[in-house]
Structures are given as C-alpha cells and as structure tokens.
Design a protein that fits this description.
The protein is α/β, with parallel strands linked by helices. The chain has a single domain, classed as Rossmann fold, CATH 3.40.50. It is built from six helices and five strands; from the N terminus they run βαβααβαβαβα. The chain has a five-stranded parallel sheet, sandwiched between helices. Strand 1, helix 1 and strand 2 form a beta-alpha-beta unit. It is globular and about 40 Å long. It starts with 5 loop residues before the first strand and ends in a 9-residue tail after the last helix.
C-alpha cells in the first residue's frame, strides 16, 4: 500500500490553512500548512510534496515568487495559485509563471478536489467533498 499523496498549503492566513488542511485530509490526502513561502522552502516538506497550494498575496515572497523558486528546485511539482484579487495585471503575472491552475477565492471544496485530482491524481480511497 502506497502512502497518501502529500499536499502542502502555503498561506499567511492561519484559519484558511487549517480549513484547507482539514479538507484535504478528509479527501484522503496527507497535508501540512506553512505560514509563508520562506517557511515552506526551508522545510523538509519541500522534498516530499506532490503538490503545493499557495496564496498569491503574502508578506515576503508571494505565491508567484514561490512558483518561480519551485520551478528551479522542483520543476515538475504542480503549483496551484489561489487569490481573491481581481486586478488584471496581477492575474496576468500569475498566469505567466504557468501554475497548474489559478483558483479564484472563494472556491468550493469540489473545485479544489477536482483540481488536485487533475494535478496529481485522486487520493487513495478518495472521498469527494
């Protein structure tokens, strides 16, 4: 039996991180949260992650900066960017770094589950939200 797929959530909002980690675990993924891109890049989780879900707007490195850093360190790692912002310039910058997907907040659990299934496959014994 293989271990569950591992998703890392990176967001400076602790309540959103906790909610997403709980959702991912309920779907059958292994999940952890990091409060900043810098924390994630310095963690051991970087080596084992199957996918990263990150907010764009964060203090320090943005989700866009994180995507660029990961392109150099883990080129095949799917990165899902999420944002509530609607400025065209920001969305164009986000799209230009070629994330697996750009999710617009608020999104529902089914949308995230579908996105992850497309990015890395369904969780073992997946339970759809």
């Amino acid at each position: 039996m293989s271990s569950p797929l591992f998703v890392c959530v990176v967001d400076d909002d602790p309540s959103l991180c906790a909610a997403l980690v709980n959702l991912l675990r309920s779907c059958g993924y292994r999940a952890t949260a990091h409060g900043s891109a810098e924390d994630f890049l310095a963690s051991a989780d970087l080596a084992g992650a199957d996918c990263v879900v990150t907010d764009i707007q964060m203090p320090g490195l943005s989700g866009i900066d994180l995507r660029l850093a990961l392109a150099g360190r883990r080129p095949g790692l799917p990165v899902i960017l999420m944002t509530a912002r609607t400025e065209r310039a920001l969305l164009d910058r986000a799209t230009a770094v070629r994330p697996f997907r750009l999710l617009h907040k608020p999104f529902d659990a089914e949308e995230l589950a579908t996105c992850l299934a497309e990015a890395i496959g369904p969780a073992e014994g997946a339970v759809r939200p």
